[in-house]
Amino acid sequence: MMRKQQTFSRGLSDKVRKSKAAPEIQKNPFEVKINRKKFDVLGRKSKHDVGLPGVSRSRAIQKRKETLLKEFRLKDKNNKFIDRRFGEYDSKLTPEEKILQRFTLERQRTQDRKDLYNLNEEEELTHYGQSLAEMEKMTDVIDSDSDSEEKGLLSAELTATHFGGGGGLLRKKSAGDDEEEHKPRSRQELIEELIIKSKQEKRERQTQKEEAQELTEKLDQDWRSIQNLLAHKTPKAERKDETDKPKLDQYDMMVRELGFEMKAQPSEKLKSAEELAREERHRLQTLEADRLKRMMGDAEEEAGQTNTHISADDMNDGFMLDGDDRKTLAYKDGKWNIEGEEEEKEEEEDEEGGEEEEDDGDDAEGQDEEEEDEDDEGHCDLQSDEGSEDEDGQSTEEEQECAEEPPAVIEEQKKAVQEAARAELPYTFPAPESYSDLKQLLQDHESEQQCVILDRTLKCHHPSLAAGNKAKLQKLFGFLLEYVGDLATQNPPDLKTVSALIPQICGLCQMFPEAACKAVQTLLSDSGHSMEETLEVKGRAPMPDLDMLVLLKIAALLFPSSDFRHPVMTPAFLYISQALTRCAVVSLEDVCKGLILCCLALEFVSLSQRIFPELLNFLLGLLHLSVSDKHNTGYTVVSPFRRQGKNCDLLVLKDPSVSHSWNRKPISLQTAHRVTAQSPVERDHFRLSLIDSCLDLVKRCTSLYKDLPSYAHIFQPIRALLLKHLPVEGYPAPLQDLHREILDAIPEKPSQHAPLVFKKKKPIPLKLFTPKIVQILDYGKKRGNTKEEKEHERLKHKYKREFKGALREIRKDTRFLAHEKLNDVMSRDAERKRKVKELYGSLATQEGEWKALKRKNRK
């Protein structure tokens, strides 16, 4: 046993000695860490049975000092020394080549600096591209025949007189001059001579200019005489034989058209809804103020005071002359108001006299020009006045006629204007707080005026103008629905006004959809509850009145009926189905109401193509009312209809011969309130109209539901009634054609369908308890079955290992930096303590010396 232990320890020490650790560590057995194993496995080579943690730690610390610590020391420090010498970081250049190129660049820089102010004779200096040497010679020749350029030239004598100090004119002449020239002349004589010479030169230039002008005109006349000889133009008759010019292609034509098109111009900024509402309210308030003034008789006086003269040449750009003191023509008490006219005339005469005195001192040419300008201005003013008189001639004649009339007539006209303003609709209205206020506001007005009143009320109380307007308009929607219901229940119903108010109701619904939804829901629920109460009390309920029919139509216009579930339309569907199944049909008015409900139901399902069984049953019941023989029928009628009994022959014709005099015409909604037909013939005509409407609805239903798999089964009872029981032979030709079209659309026999069975499926086998074989690799670790699973597991394992290693290194780096920071703090504290101790020692020495000196002085 001892022999085995010695052999094992000897092997470990040998491994430590053979390792690459430092010599001092190799000799120290405490630096060695031995990883003992529980048992040995044959064929497995262990790599980490012996470790040197001290060596690894020291290497890691040294590496962090060289990298992480330097980076930490240089953190937030941007000072760097960059060597910008030429070729310093170019490893391809040798040191000799670097020195040579640096010397060359240095010499080039110094050479450029020396040549900056070195004016050599070979170089030519320029100014704006011209040589200075050529400019100094002053060889430019000025050739100009125009008088405007010659005006700027100065003669040599004039230049010598003004800029030469007068020496050129006052100097003595030479001996070769005339006798007069030998005499000295005064300065006045010299100046006069200079003036004469300048005038003579000016006269000569003018003469030369006139001669040149005459020669030019003569040359132009001669050129016109020989121009026809040079360019001969062939007449049009001889040009027919010539080839036509090539036509432009489409691209060139398009380019020319685009060139002449109007360029885009910037448009005005689009105004928001709030700005538009504010402007509209301001406009209505202004119109209402004007109407009130006209009603009180104050409009004419203000119009006479505020009227201003507008010339025909006015561009309407806001520009006004400061001196425009023209008086506006006005009438007062049947006479012209011409106050201050004489004063204006006197002022004008004084101004004209002053202008004439000022014009006398000017030249003749200046006078002519000013007179022409004044004449032109005068003509323009006259023309503008004439134009304004022509445009406003009619109004002026009317004013003259009014002026000629006596005051009594004027008072009558004033009263007529006041009455017209009083009869006119106001432009602003208060928002109604209750239904009675709305009814009082709209009553005694026609339908168009009621629409105008509602429009102005909406504009004056837009939600963006005030905080409480939204609640007022929401209440107004409910009041309008109630008002429409009252109009529909009148005798006779005012359906024209109802149709006119629909746009206002739609506008309010778009502004407040939630409030509109709640209002319609409330009306539908109230009507449904009243119908239920009537059924509980009497056992049957009457058909809905015309107000509910109008409400259902309005709901179809306001809300979408194709939704699967809607907060308004779903209750409307239920209400219609309840009315078609539980409301009794006891009169022709009820039949008309039922047809209206069927039209609404068909309109509701026209987009969604949803099946409506109550609609088809009610149409079948209406056709059953037109059958005279109700025995042995091949169909079944449901509530509210019965096979036999009272009110089962409402649509049976009393006299079949009246069908020849029947004409197709639409049924009015007013008949739902009361049937106006009194005679038997008229009532039979009305029955034929009802049957025509019923057959038309059946035809529309067949076209709507023709794609359903159960189409033939659904319409088989209606086909049986139309084919065997309906007395179509006594009906008019349009009804017979409609009857034939319906029978053609419905198949004779419904298609046979296979019975419904469960879908056949492959039987699911029982679970077999077969062991799942999984390949186990890497000594007990599962790595998956397929190659992709193995690769995924391997990468996952590698990722975890690397992640743990990175976390470990980050923790070590953080610990190392914390240790370095602590060392820095401790070194700074130690240095501070040392300096404080030195200061205390020096102070103590000074104190001792001072006390010793003090004791010495006492002795």
From TrEMBL:
<feature type="region of interest" description="Disordered">
    <location>
        <begin position="262"/>
        <end position="408"/>
    </location>
</feature>
<dbReference type="GO" id="GO:0032040">
    <property type="term" value="C:small-subunit processome"/>
</dbReference>
<feature type="compositionally biased region" description="Basic and acidic residues">
    <location>
        <begin position="323"/>
        <end position="338"/>
    </location>
</feature>
<feature type="compositionally biased region" description="Basic and acidic residues">
    <location>
        <begin position="262"/>
        <end position="297"/>
    </location>
</feature>
<feature type="region of interest" description="Disordered">
    <location>
        <begin position="1"/>
        <end position="29"/>
    </location>
</feature>
<protein>
    <submittedName>
        <fullName>Nucleolar protein 14-like</fullName>
    </submittedName>
</protein>
<dbReference type="GO" id="GO:0030490">
    <property type="term" value="P:maturation of SSU-rRNA"/>
</dbReference>
<dbReference type="GO" id="GO:0030692">
    <property type="term" value="C:Noc4p-Nop14p complex"/>
</dbReference>
<feature type="compositionally biased region" description="Basic and acidic residues">
    <location>
        <begin position="181"/>
        <end position="223"/>
    </location>
</feature>
<feature type="compositionally biased region" description="Polar residues">
    <location>
        <begin position="1"/>
        <end position="10"/>
    </location>
</feature>
<feature type="compositionally biased region" description="Basic and acidic residues">
    <location>
        <begin position="235"/>
        <end position="248"/>
    </location>
</feature>
<comment type="similarity">
    <text>Belongs to the NOP14 family.</text>
</comment>
<dbReference type="InterPro" id="IPR007276">
    <property type="entry name" value="Nop14"/>
</dbReference>
<keyword id="KW-0539">Nucleus</keyword>
<comment type="function">
    <text>Involved in nucleolar processing of pre-18S ribosomal RNA. Has a role in the nuclear export of 40S pre-ribosomal subunit to the cytoplasm.</text>
</comment>
<keyword id="KW-0698">rRNA processing</keyword>
<keyword id="KW-0690">Ribosome biogenesis</keyword>
<feature type="compositionally biased region" description="Acidic residues">
    <location>
        <begin position="339"/>
        <end position="404"/>
    </location>
</feature>
<feature type="region of interest" description="Disordered">
    <location>
        <begin position="158"/>
        <end position="248"/>
    </location>
</feature>
<dbReference type="Pfam" id="PF04147">
    <property type="entry name" value="Nop14"/>
</dbReference>
